[in-house]
Amino acid sequence: MRYISTRGEAPVLNFEQAMLTGLARDGGLYLPETIPQFSTGEIAALESLPYGEAALRIIKPFLGESFSDDELTKALDAAYADFGHVARAPLRQLAPGHHLLELFHGPTLAFKDFAMQLIGQLFQIALKRSGQRITIVGATSGDTGSAAIEAFRGLDNVDVFILFPHGRVSEVQRRQMTTPDDANVHALALDGHFDDCQARLKDLFNDHDFRDQVGLAGVNSINWARVLAQVVYYFTAAVSLGAPGRVVDFTVPTGNFGDILAGLVAKRMGLPIGQLVVATNQNDILHRALTSGEYRVGEVEPSISPSMDIQVSSNFERALFWAYDSDPAAIRQIMAELKAGGFSISQGALQALQEDFMSGRASETETLDMIRTIRDETGEILCPHSAVGVKVAREKLRDGVPMITLATAHPAKFPDAVETAIGIRPDLPPHMQGLFDKAERQTRVENDVEALKSLILERRMA
Ligand SMILES: *Cc1c(COP(=O)(O)O)cnc(C)c1O
Description:
- This protein is an alpha/beta fold.
- It has helices at 15-21, 40-44, 51-59, 69-80, 112-130, 143-152, 171-178, 194-206, 208-214, 224-240, 258-269, 285-292, 316-323, 328-339, 347-356, 364-378, 384-396, 415-422, 449-459; strands at 3-5, 30-32, 91-95, 98-102, 134-139, 158-165, 185-190, 216-217, 248-253, 273-280, 294-296, 342-344, 357-361, 403-407, 443-445.
- It contains 19 helices and 15 strands.
- Its EC number is 4.2.3.1.
């Protein structure tokens, strides 16, 4: 299996190299050159399989020679062992024809655990084989950082440094990053905003000497291996509701477009998905782009669903690549225009996108209202991101086609928004109840790349 860059000017890599690299050198994103196809028989055979076994069948054709079946099986077992639900990604019915896919039973209570836990294991195997040591540095507004720390804590050959904006993450999010006591975990509270964290991260990657010296690696959501891990639950959910004998729709609370892109991959593999509905909060650039064809970047407006507060959706580039008939020159052109503020999607590409995607948005009030409505109608408490999804999904329900809305985080991760909506602060699940009693460990760091470099050099366990 060969991996190519959406911009066509980076080396072709195998799966393992694409995973360890993250971003392509030409600034593009890696994609498999061809998408493996699943027959209806192969899809039907996934029914009732344990999650890990379904994952093995779905992921394996993308790996080529990079990992053996035995290695992948062990990685999957270890990755999902600590999930709080035996189904890993259980479905719960909200209304006739509308189902919630609960993706928050992992160790940090957001869907990011599905991908991060698996790549933690795969990195470990690859590094053991090569004897290489790496330094993972990530920037987070909350969920990615905790998922990465949880996945890489205590692993040999890896140091993990997470930059988060000091004073600007929720207490649960902060404690998830500062309470693990493993020596290879370094939570860095940066004096600045999330944008500053991302900018300093880019500075580190752009310093090639430093990058080579510490073996810098990235695990943000553009990493292909993360997208691939998320393809699995589209299959398991659709099959439990009657696929491949039946078409299903999905609605996905969307920010960086990684999660919903996994749905598109599942569809291209042969899973009968009708509509993939992009649900955005008030930061609705994707909704506007998919309806008008104009992708114009504005200012991020902070919302009660912060993990979707984004203007430039990195993974959208992969959907654009396919919509532009896999033409890297077209992608280079529009990405250059994006640097200057935005671009117009061509008529043909927009039509292609609209064949797969629909979209909608939810305002802050609509999101709070939906948390309240679902609590009244079902007793279920939604996190604000999932509520954005449910609100948009209800507008797109079709007769006779089951709708599956992805619940991306546990409500206890966002207690303030939930309390505003229904006057209740949701409890943390049992495995996390000690969170508020544990000692915290974090380092304040200036918003300065040189300060960061010396800190990383001093702290890592070379
Ligand atoms: C990351 C995140 C999202 C957005 O997912 P993308 O893959 O970036 O589109 C939505 N909800 C929650 C809770 C998240 O953590």
